[in-house]
Amino acid sequence: EISSPLYTDCIVTHSFMVVGMRFRGEHKFKKSDIITLELEPSNTYDKNAIKVMVDGIHKAYVAKNENVSIGDLMKQYSNYRITAHGKKNYNQSASLNLEYPWIVCEKCRDMLQASRDYDYTY
Q1: What is residue 27's three-state secondary structure?
Q2: What does the UniProt keyword field contain (predicted)?
């Protein structure tokens, strides 16, 4: 199960690990990578496998202990982006972010609700 979401400037973010880069050309994730995820239900070893693609090329997998949760989020929300973060040049495992820029964070939601409840009549 993935960790609780982080709220940064109204971007809901889930961090997760990816593995297997050493079997796929030892890709080293960079912040500039264009990263996408693809469900791989036909995977022989894990029907919940999720491929990590960089510029359309398969480079890694979402870690097995997180792929069900990440897959559920992918199915629930189609508008997300993936970004690399953390230390540079990991080649055996890396941490990526799954971001939902259109979901309002709890703090901002509370502020919006408070402004709606405010009596603006004078």
Answers
A1: coil
A2: Hydrolase, Metal-binding
Between CA 75 and CA 39 the distance in angstroms is 10
Phi, psi angle pair for 114, to nearest 5°: -60, -40
**Which residues, 6+ apart, have CB-to-CB distance to 82 below 8 Å?**
35, 36, 37, 52, 96, 97, 98, 99
- Which pLDDT tens digit goes with each residue over 16-57? 888 877 666 667 777 778 888 899 999 999 999 999 888 889
Q: Which residues pair with 17 in a beta bridge?
A: 95
Under 8 Å between Cβ of 47 and 61: no
- Global confidence as pTM: 0.66
The SS3 assignment for 104 reads coil
In eight-state DSSP terms, residue 119 is: -
What count of residues does the chain have?
A: 122
Please name the helix (run of DSSP H) or strand (run of DSSP E) that holds residue 112, with its range, or none. helix 106-117
Q: Which amino acid is at 39?
A: L
Sequence letter at residue 89: N
Q: Which residues contact 22 (CB under 8 A, 6 or more apart)?
A: 91, 92
